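Narrative progress, year one. The postdoctoral researcher (J.K.) led the effort to move from monomer predictions toward full complexes, under supervision of the PI. The following entry was the first complex the group processed end to end, covering 286 residues in total.
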Amino acid sequence: MRRTNDTLLISRVMLFDDRRAFATLVEQHQPTIRRFFLHQTMGDTMLSDDLAQETFIKLYYSIKQFKGLSNFSTYLYRIAYNVFQDHLRRNKITEDADAIPEQSMSHNNDVAMDINKALQHLSQPERIAVTLYYIEDRKVDDIAQILQLPTGTIKSHLSRARTKLAKFLKNNGYE
Amino acid sequence: MNNNTPHNQDEKLVKQFLQKQAYEAKDNPWFTHRTMHRLPAAQKNTGRNIITAVTIAAVVACGILLYNLNDYILPPEENKITDSLLCIYTAIMGTIVLVVLQVIRLIKTYF
């Protein structure tokens, strides 16, 4: 149902440059895209919202390239992933554990610290794979399409990440 | 299959932790509004709209023409039938050309 609705909205944007249809698409998909960025930026709400906005603007310019071969949300995550890569390149963010940005206001600080500490044990591709697999509930094939990597690579990212996270959680009394 | 292997236990532990402690994007009622404001100004497609309107009008006119062909349009005089048929065929061909143009436009938009 959601897929049909998306297809209809995309057609309206493609054919008639229908801004209302595009606003509906943004409204429907913004919570998941903002949440995706929250996990990549360690809970930086402002930065996540900026990156999510950039994602939707890129979507507007590239919507005619969407052929409907994959799920629309997979296409949108692919754009979000590219936006995040561009952001990393622009800001040359290292995976330094000491630069923890402002926490999301919706989170209890201890909880946020825990999830941040846990995610900081992962490399950037591992973090993206884990976010998409465990939090956004995407299939390995979808993640492979989003990251443009072979499914085997995604599986090994997930396996390594799972081992690191489990070790961290056990060491912190989460068993 | 054994569900208590170390691999499965790790999977369960990680899954529970991440799903319980995942961030949730706080409601931001201005998000869509701000995003829409950053889009380029909408282009006016007056030409396209006129062609679409003319095509629709032509298709409707053709439909009416064909429906009423025998009853009203064709004159009873034998010598006028050829002229009338020529007019009707020209109108139908014109409409088909307009429809084909619209289909090409649609294909170009999608691919």
